[in-house]
Design a protein that fits this description.
The structure is a single chain. Strands 22, 23, 24, 25 and 26 form a 5-stranded antiparallel β-sheet that branches. A 4-stranded antiparallel β-sheet has the order 1-33-32-31, with no helix packed on it. Strands 2-3-4-5 form a 4-stranded antiparallel β-sheet, with no helix packed on it. The chain is an all-beta fold. The mean pLDDT is 86. It has no helices and 33 strands. Helices cover 0% and strands 59% of the residues.
């Protein structure tokens, strides 16, 4: 987050707000949907751009497809009459990796695996090559699958945590449970044999060989874990009881809140955490400006965006923003 100076800007045409937008090493990846010329169908598209100059590396369009990213791969999902098929693509070339995968429910990325329900079973595949990471297991009584390092965990609706062994057997772990009662809970691999469970609260769980322990809990929903100059951290949206909302930098090792932003300022999206600072999206009802803070919470710069803000992505010091003027979207990279 050096100066906020614009490096390049390219148009990606008429498109909806991006469903996928990431900076991956030296690439900017944008997945969108747009109307066909006759307005009869939506077309899924993915653009992969060079982060240094905005030149196109590759792109693909498919009427029936949506796209996800996970690590160094792109997953192309195509809706079929009996479910969905998925094809892993090399993020740098678009070349297929492995075989076409059959999914029932839409798969979700969880650590180093993809999981989906297929005919009453859970299919768990590696995101590296699409191979089965574990034998298929019965879906009855299972709510969530998450990869944690070399482990694969399953979570029951009750919050009970089980290890999915390489044989497919389920080994209960405890005593901690992950509370799923609030609805969808995002469970993230935190490395070092730990997971982060995020809903209206953020809670760290340490995974041992035969147990799971809750290490700390913070009231507030946090973003993805990030390695920063202040250590491993996340930005959390926190509120005091019946009080205004603020954003806080949370140390993911011990749950300590390192600093908070000014309370009561509402923004159109949550802040984005980088290795050396924080990116603040525009305030609701104000000009379309983007602000950057250093890792200690001090303001570095503010820039006016060329159009209506829709999404941001960061990586290796680069800030990528999708903005829209009328029906045309552009990707702009700042440093």
């Amino acid at each position: 987050l050096d100066t906020g100076d614009e490096v390049w800007s390219v148009s990606i045409g008429a498109a909806r707000d991006p469903g996928v937008f990431e900076v991956v090493d030296d690439l900017v990846v944008v997945g969108t949907r747009l109307r066909s010329n006759r307005g009869e169908a939506e077309i899924g598209r993915i653009h992969v751009l060079d982060r240094t100059d905005g030149s196109e590396v590759w792109r693909e369009a498919n009427t029936a497809a949506t796209y996800q990213t996970s690590g160094d791969v792109v997953l192309r999902l195509v809706s079929e009459r009996t479910g969905q098929t998925g094809q892993l693509l090399d993020i740098r070339s678009g070349d297929p990796l492995g075989e076409v995968l059959a999914f029932g429910t839409p798969p979700y990325s969880a650590g180093n695996v993809l999981a989906s329900s297929v005919d009453g079973s859970v299919r768990i595949v590696s995101i590296e090559d699409g191979a089965l990471a574990r034998p298929e297991i019965r879906a009855d009584g299972l709510e969530r699958i998450v990869g944690v390092g070399d482990d694969v965990l399953a979570i029951r609706p009750s919050g009970e945590i089980l290890r999915v062994e390489r044989s497919g057997a389920l080994t209960p772990l405890g005593p901690a449970r992950i509370d799923l009662s609030g609805g969808w809970v995002r469970v993230t691999d935190l490395a070092d044999d730990a997971v982060l469970a995020v809903d209206d609260v953020t809670e760290r769980f340490d995974v041992g060989s035969d147990s799971v322990e809750s290490r700390w809990r913070v009231e507030g929903s946090s973003g993805p874990p990030t390695e920063t100059a202040a250590g491993r951290a996340a930005i959390a949206r926190v509120s005091e009881a019946d009080g205004p909302t603020s954003y806080a930098l949370v140390d993911l090792d011990d749950g300590a809140i390192l600093w908070r932003t000014e309370p009561g300022v509402r923004r159109i999206d949550d802040p984005t955490l980088l290795a050396d600072g924080v990116l603040l999206p525009p305030r609701i009802g104000e000009s379309q400006s983007l602000a950057a803070l250093d890792i200690e919470g001090n303001e570095l710069w503010t820039i006016e965006l060329p159009g209506m803000f829709t999404a941001t992505a960061v990586g290796d010091g680069a800030v990528a923003v999708v903005s829209r003027i009328d029906d045309t979207s552009s990707v702009t990279v700042y440093r």
